[in-house]
Hints:
Largest sheet: 6 strands, mixed
Number of domains: 2
Helix content: 25-40%
Radius of gyration: 19 Å
CATH architecture of the largest domain: 3-Layer(aba) Sandwich
Mean pLDDT: 95
Distance between the termini: 41 Å
Number of helices: 9
Structural class: alpha/beta
Shape: globular
Order of helices and strands: EHEHEEHEEHEHEHEEEHEHH
Low-confidence stretches: none
Bound molecules: NADP nicotinamide-adenine-dinucleotide phosphate
Amino acid sequence: MTRLFGVMGHPVTHSLSPVMHTAAFRALRLDALYAPFDVPPRVLKPILRALILAGVEGMSVTVPLKERVVPLMDRLEGSARAIGAVNTIVVRRRRLIGYNTDGPGIVLALRELGWRAGPTRAVVLGAGGAARAVAWELMRAPGSVVTIANRRVARGRRLARWLSRACPRSRAHARALREVTLAEVELLVNATTVGMQAQDGLLIDPTRLHRGLLVYDLVYHRQTALVEAARRRGCVAANGMSMLLYQGAEALRLWLGRPAPLAPMRRALERSLQRRSIVHGQ
Ligand SMILES: NC(=O)c1ccc[n+]([C@@H]2O[C@H](COP(=O)([O-])OP(=O)(O)OC[C@H]3O[C@@H](n4cnc5c(N)ncnc54)[C@H](OP(=O)(O)O)[C@@H]3O)[C@@H](O)[C@H]2O)c1
């Protein structure tokens, strides 16, 4: 029988998960279907129930449902419990187990760029859901110092306070974007939506980017102005495609109990992003 998986969000048409997971199933010669489900928040509970009854084995969860699915889980694992957001659901005997694979996703993406896990001095731009997942993952290494720089500084301060409580062996601060200094910093992560539009500029002064700084932009739609400026300044820099790949690979491993076929998944993502940039002229 065909095995059933999917992604739910609202809207969901932008999601690249169907392309990536369909390529994985094909490479694994698995009789499985991965479908997008547009789920408005007000019908989340009945639709989730219906999907379970239909035999869905696993789901990805995207905006704006990552926090809303939390109370519907029978169990939360690892970072999903810590950060209160689920991006992957595993269904076992009709029970729902919530995971968050964004943390492992960024760690593997940074390792690919030569980053060594351990105490890190980092600046995270943004204070939304992605910033929370990334900063928490970095703060897990005792002795880390993470600065949250957000447009709305009060929101940044709230996240920094939460991080300090959640990871007491590391330190978190909040700064206004214009106050960001990078001199003592090894890692800069953009976890804002700035860069998603082709015309988006930079949130920080590019002359502060220095050789030896690793720059990672979670935006995966293109090489952003930040990535380009960082490379011009001699930094190692990449956009968020690799994180998208690795968080998806980790979800697949949780669903199937076997390693994901990374190469065909990466090729499918690259092809799809290239096609979109041609269609939208970005
Ligand atoms: N590569 C991956 O696998 C991956 C995974 C997850 C997310 N992402 C990407 O990460 C980004 C953030 O996602 P999210 O879920 O965290 O979004 P979110 O919760 O809506 O947070 C958006 C963040 O962007 C900031 N922002 C928005 N417009 C801005 C502007 N004009 N100037 C300065 N800051 C601005 C917001 O600041 P305020 O608080 O001041 O509004 C907030 O900090 C998105 O691009 C998403 O696609 C990528």
